[in-house]
Amino acid sequence: MYRRQLIMMISIIALSFTMLSTAFMLLSYRYMIQDERDDAARNVGYIATFTTSYLQQNASIQTDFYRNYIASIALISDCIVLVADPQGEVVYATDGSYFYNYETTLPTRLVEHVFEENGYTGLTILPGITQESQYVAALPITTGSGPWMTDRAMVLVAADASRITEMWNATATIFFFSVMSVLLIAIVTCSIMSAYQ
């Protein structure tokens, strides 16, 4: 009787924690991805709006003021900001502390998606810029002037996807040790109560 009651109580507790931990992991991971997506979309929106209004007043974005603006956005948001011309060739690329001279072109599929769907959000690798998957949000620049500044220019914000995984792993580790501690306490308590009964 003691053995059966102990096994039943431990099984119920283990099942409960398994269901709870599964739900927690899925929801927390989804929340972190959603949070990263919202941040990237918000930041690329700021840059696209500013770039559009800036080009209405100036002939070019090749100025120190514009460079400082996108560098500050990149530094605050801890991401890479890219500005590309109509063919997808990178004009600006900065992480906030340094401007990179990438002589590369963005994937054709990505460029077409931005202009056809009026934006892009998702995980992708940017060849020649990043080796790992990045969470990328992109918007077209709808107004402009100058030789390459047409309605087909674009801005992108790329956030390191591994950062989400690291945060999730840290949260999962804390949750796992909490669950194990509670489970151990519950097993000892159940054992004592069952033995006493």
What does this structure look like?
This protein has 197 residues and is of the alpha+beta class. The longest helix has 56 residues, at 2-57. Helix 1 (2-57) runs antiparallel to helix 2 (64-77) and helix 1 (2-57) packs antiparallel against helix 4 (161-196). It has helices at residues 2-57, 64-77, 108-117, 161-196, and strands at residues 80-84, 90-94, 120-124, 134-141, 153-160.
Keywords, separated by commas or semicolons:
single chain, 197 residues, alpha+beta, five-stranded antiparallel beta sheet, 59% helix, 16% strand
Describe the structure concisely:
The protein is α+β, with helices and mostly antiparallel strands and 197 residues long. It contains four helices and five strands, in the order ααββαβββα.
DSSP strand (E) fraction? 15-25%
Structural class: alpha+beta
Q: Low-confidence runs (pLDDT<50, min 5 residues)? A: none
* Radius of gyration (Å): 25 Å
Name the helicity range: 55-70%
Neighbour order of strands in the largest sheet: 2-1-5-4-3
Molecular shape: rod-shaped
CA-to-CA gap between the ends?
Answer: 9 Å
From N to C, what is the helix and strand string? HHEEHEEEH
Helix and strand topology:
Elements: H1 2-57, H2 64-77, E1 80-84, E2 90-94, H3 108-117, E3 120-124, E4 134-141, E5 153-160, H4 161-196
Antiparallel strand pairs: 1-2, 1-5, 3-4, 4-5
